[in-house]
């Protein structure tokens, strides 16, 4: 009888659960990439939160995000976003500002004669027929010990289209004031510097004004020199603010109007000149973002600032809203500039502040008044803060103007009328 038992079969060898080697490498790569992505995104998140709480990145949250973006390699996207925003939010056309926007304070006075420049004449309005008070100069900031004005301010509409806006103009007398460039740990970077924020109490005892410098250095297309140090190479043809060792400031094209010598204390370059030979330069109305502003095209009407020099050496600052580069240059020319350049742009960075107080007494932000009042976002105290990391300029009384016994001697007077 045949057996019905199942034939013996040896057990099958255990199955291998190992995958091909490529599967393990793929898994490891995914884990590593996930960890790197997590760390990178965490870093970006932490730095963004820090930027949003850092006043040196600007006043508004949008400005702080933009600064953070430019510092973290997405400057191109930031510029695109700013451009699109400005396309969607153009400045208002037509209208008129309140007459109070054209300034207040002393306009008719007797100025002691002496070794100082004659007061400026009224600015012709870029908008056409001037409104009452438009373009009239007002005394601002500390005067010399004998009462001679060192700074005048005037206000005009920027053009004949955006007539509800007003920009400010400041005129500074270099025979009574000495200039100083303060360098920042972020702009231009490097250091340490002898003159850097905060302005010290000792330096503030003769302070008359402080105002913004130029773009971040990667966007400025120029160099930076101060206190015998070449921080960034100077570029021939670049628009340059030059301060000499005697405290005199001027503006010009590097290598043409101004050159290096043993009398140069500081050079701050920014873009290309916008005023030459008393005229606006050709091509300002063209959309050339490289030559006149890599961060935003020059044809947009936004907050801008600029600096110029007159034939007799006075320094002119212009700052305000609804300015194209062509408008900025035009206002500089109308204010008497024979050479001029753009400084920084956008509301968070355009700031000109004058300071008052007894000569010899320390002052701070509480003693400051912005050129355009509350519409200038920067607090007058930012230059006295140790968190301020951008470069800026100051104007202070010259030593011989701080006491009545040594100030420019009065020998009669000259009158400045309300019409300038």
Task: Outline the structure in words.
By secondary structure, the chain is α+β, with helices and mostly antiparallel strands. It has two domains: 21-88, no CATH class; 99-416, no CATH class. It has six helices and 20 strands. Strand 9 and strand 10 (249-253) form a beta hairpin. The chain starts with 20 loop residues before the first helix and ends with a strand.
Secondary structure blueprint with pairings:
Elements: H1 21-52, H2 61-71, H3 75-88, E1 109-112, E2 138-140, E3 151-156, E4 167-172, E5 177-182, H4 201-204, E6 207-212, H5 217-220, E7 224-226, E8 229-232, E9 239-244, E10 249-253, E11 264-269, E12 275-276, E13 279-280, E14 302-310, E15 315-323, H6 325-334, E16 337-345, E17 352-355, E18 368-370, E19 392-397, E20 413-416
Antiparallel strand pairs: 1-20, 2-3, 3-4, 4-15, 5-19, 6-17, 6-19, 7-8, 7-11, 9-10, 9-11, 12-13, 14-15, 14-16, 17-18
Helix pairs in contact: 1-2, 2-3
Provide a quick synopsis of the model.
Helix content is 18%, strand content 25%. It has 420 residues and is α+β, with helices and mostly antiparallel strands.
């Amino acid at each position: 009888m045949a057996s019905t038992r199942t034939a013996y079969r040896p057990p099958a060898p255990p199955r291998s659960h190992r995958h091909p080697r490529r599967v393990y490498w793929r898994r490891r790569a995914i884990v590593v990439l996930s960890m790197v992505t997590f760390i990178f995104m965490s870093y970006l998140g932490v730095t963004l939160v820090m930027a949003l709480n850092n006043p040196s990145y600007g006043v508004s949250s949008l400005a702080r995000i933009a600064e953070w973006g430019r510092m973290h390699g997405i400057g191109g996207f930031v510029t695109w976003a700013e451009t699109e925003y400005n396309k969607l939010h153009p400045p208002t056309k037509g209208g008129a500002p309140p007459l109070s926007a054209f300034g207040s304070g002393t306009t008719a006075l007797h100025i002691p004669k002496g070794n100082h420049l004659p007061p400026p004449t009224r600015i012709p309005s870029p908008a056409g027929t001037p409104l009452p008070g438009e373009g009239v100069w007002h005394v601002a900031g500390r005067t010399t010990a004998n009462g001679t004005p060192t700074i005048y301010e005037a206000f005009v509409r920027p053009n004949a289209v955006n007539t509800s806006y007003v920009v400010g103009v400041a005129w500074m007398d270099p025979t009574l004031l000495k200039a100083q460039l303060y360098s920042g740990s972020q702009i231009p970077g490097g250091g340490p510097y002898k003159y850097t924020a905060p302005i010290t109490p000792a330096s503030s005892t003769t302070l008359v004004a402080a105002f913004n410098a130029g773009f971040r250095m990667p966007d400025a297309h120029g160099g930076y020199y101060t206190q015998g140090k070449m921080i960034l190479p100077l570029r021939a043809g670049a628009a340059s603010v030059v301060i000499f060792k005697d405290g005199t400031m001027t503006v010009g094209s590097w290598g043409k109007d101004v050159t290096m010598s043993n009398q140069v204390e500081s050079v701050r370059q920014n873009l290309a000149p916008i005023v030459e030979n008393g005229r606006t330069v050709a091509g300002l109305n063209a959309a050339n973002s490289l030559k006149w502003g890599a961060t935003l095209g020059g044809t947009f009407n936004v907050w801008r600032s600029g600096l110029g020099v007159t034939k007799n050496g006075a320094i002119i600052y212009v700052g305000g809203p609804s300015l194209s580069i062509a408008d900025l240059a035009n206002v500089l020319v109308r204010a008497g500039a024979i050479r001029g350049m753009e400084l920084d742009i956008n509301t968070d960075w355009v700031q000109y502040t004058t300071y008052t107080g007894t000569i010899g007494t320390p002052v701070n932000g509480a003693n400051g008044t912005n050129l355009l009042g509350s519409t200038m976002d920067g607090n007058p105290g930012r230059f006295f803060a140790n968190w301020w990391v951008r470069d800026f300029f100051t104007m202070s009384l010259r030593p011989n103007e701080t006491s009545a016994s040594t100030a420019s001697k009065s020998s009669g007077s000259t009158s400045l009328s309300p019409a300038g």
